[in-house]
Amino acid sequence: MKKNKYKNNNTEEKPEKTREETKKLQTEMGEKFGERTEELKKRTKELEETRRALINMLEDVEEARVKAEEERSKTQAIITNLADGLLVFNKDNILILANPQVENFFKIRAEKIIGKSTIELTKFLNFKSLMTILTNNYSNKIINKGIKEVFREEIIIKKNLILEVSTVPIVKEKEQLGMSIILHDISREKLIEQMKTEFVSLAAHQLRTPLSAIKWTLRMILDGDLGKITQEQEGFLQKTYQSNERMIGLINDLLNVTRIEEGRYLFKRVSANIEEIVKPIIKSYQTEMGRKKITFIFRKSTVILPKVEIDKEKIGLAIENFIDNALKYTFPGGRVTVALKYAKKEIEFSVKDTGIGIPNDQKDRIFTKFFRGANVIRMETEGSGLGLFITKNIIEAHGGRVWFESKEGEGSTFYFALPINRT
Ligand code: ADP
Fold first, then answer.
1. pLDDT, tens only, 91-105
2. Which of 12, 116, 122, 323 shows the smallest number of beta carbons within 10 Å?
3. Where is this chain compositionally biased, Basic and acidic residues type (predicted)?
4. pTM of model > 0.85
């Protein structure tokens, strides 16, 4: 009975407690469940947002891809339709691009040359001249397989096809990724240039004959061969004679230029001592130097100059052009120094003056045809702008080089150097 009582007591208390606990548990679970649901909702929302962001991103990527594709086809179209030939080499000197113009110029299919190195391309007959310019390799001797920088060098591919070659390095963040080569067709310009040269040559020849006739007639009158003339008449005739001489000089310059351009400027080389050529030229300018009150200095070589194989007349013309310019472009009272030096297997001739100098912005045009500085045109109206062009060609034909130093308002020094072994 006692036992039962206990038992009864227990069973009465327990449901109450259990109920309470169950309720508590339910409340707790309910709260937890609520929290979880909230959390799940939040996560779902976040996932939804992430999904939307991803879709947006994918759309952006797709848009960028389409844009890049468009850009690529645009670039491709530009390269394909470019009037110039375009070759691109990577940094390992392998050809990675050749546009249709290249195929057209060289009569070769792009797939035959793409993937080839500069050395392999040298073996293609059509490419030999181009690769020689680009790499400095001669015949079978490979000196350097890399591509050097080239600016406007001309190559004759065949009759009526002349190309101008220039290179442009492909650089990204200071690193060179390769080299592109631009081939510009200048055949038409060359043809026009040739026609112009032919015209100038013809006109100069036609003008020279009557000018020579005038010269000799004036000379006869001045020498009294045709009877006595008054002092006044002599004065006028002397001036006419000098003007005629200048015109003959100009015609001769023009003829020399046309001969240079047509490759007909011939050189008759003999063994000669440069000093012997310089001396009489200096002498012929003495009157002019005295008239302009120019202090003249001749610095001879301190060592005996070796003889050189030169065209005496043409080197004489080059020397004359330098001295003539120094006198023309130096104000009265100035100083002209002519010097001869022998160093490093070269004979160096220079003419230094204290004249008007050359403006910085015009220095790179000094040796070009018909160039006359803006400052000299105001000072000395006479001049053709052909003297230095002819001089440069004469010296370079002898394997030599010309250069100058100058400061506007202070003076200039013009140099040429002739190699001893190559002339
Ligand atoms: P030209 O003297 O007939 O004009 P050149 O070809 O001899 O032609 O010279 C070209 C130009 O170079 C000159 O017009 C002048 O502007 C410049 N030049 C040449 N020599 C000198 C010099 N010694 N001093 C200053 N300028 C010079």
1. 999 999 999 999 999
2. 12
3. 10-39
4. no
